[in-house]
Specification:
The protein is an alpha/beta fold and 179 residues long. The chain has a single domain (34-178), classed as 3-Layer(aba) Sandwich (Rossmann fold), CATH 3.40.50.720. Helix content is 32%, strand content 12%. Strands 1-2-3-4-5 form a 5-stranded mixed sheet, with helices on both faces. The chain is globular, with a radius of gyration of 16 Å. The chain starts with 11 loop residues before the first helix and ends with a helix. The chain binds NADP nicotinamide-adenine-dinucleotide phosphate. The site of NADP nicotinamide-adenine-dinucleotide phosphate has 17 residues, from loops.
Length: 179
């Protein structure tokens, strides 16, 4: 189920392109419906997210903070994801997919390849079970999930860090995250 800010009617073509199992809905409906909800809005829109409907849900936070795009936001020293999680009380926030470009996520998954040969994706959360479920999803779509620690630890793969945007295997990514 897909949603955006302008409403489901504006997603008709996208849904048609993706196939019969896909539906469009409001952000509230999508949040309520999903087991794993991917939140991928510009960081500065965090306050618009359907907080009520996301309670108890695993929320995959892909957002990156770019002040030029998002405006000046005081994160209070928190990582971007810990800040996001503070605004989604009760949600099981997992940081993932922020460090890979959308087109690469579509094209580089290799489910047939051995884990050590795949592109690695860093994952972080304060909720161990939620993190494990997202790592399972990442493996299923052909990437190698790498445990990047807690939401605070996700600072190590935010914009401007060496792993951000880098095409690495799991061993290389682990090395960078621990250096
Ligand atoms: N693009 C990438 O390759 C990439 C990779 C990794 C991480 N990210 C991060 O992912 C986030 C999204 O990036 P993007 O490139 O996909 O941005 P984008 O092209 O601007 O798309 C943002 C999407 O969020 C929707 N949206 C905005 N506010 C919303 C709200 N309040 N409720 C529901 N939907 C809302 C927009 O809907 P409308 O169009 O209807 O407004 C649009 O579909 C950013 O934080 C970015 O840094 C992007």
């Amino acid at each position: 189920m897909l949603s955006n800010s302008r409403g489901p009617a504006t997603l008709t073509q996208t849904v048609a392109d993706l196939g019969p199992s896909v539906r469009a809905a409001t952000a509230q409906e999508a949040a309520q419906w999903g087991e794993l909800v991917v939140e991928t809005v510009p960081f500065g829109r965090y306050a618009d997210l359907p907080e009520q409907e996301l309670q108890g849900k695993i929320v995959i936070d892909t957002a990156n903070f770019y002040p030029g795009r998002d405006g000046q936001i005081d994160l209070g020293g928190l990582s971007e994801s810990a800040f996001m999680a503070r605004h989604l009380p009760g949600a099981r926030v997992v940081k993932a997919f922020n460090a890979i470009a959308a087109a690469q996520l579509r094209d580089q998954g290799r489910p047939e390849a051995a884990l050590e040969e795949r592109r690695a994706i860093p994952v972080a959360s304060d909720d161990a079970d939620a993190k494990a479920q997202v790592m399972e999803l990442i493996e299923a779509i052909g990437f190698a999930p790498v445990d990047g620690g807690t939401l605070e630890d996700s600072k190590r793969f935010q914009p401007g860090t060496p792993p951000y945007g880098a095409d690495l295997n799991a061993q290389q990514l682990r090395q960078l995250l621990s250096s």
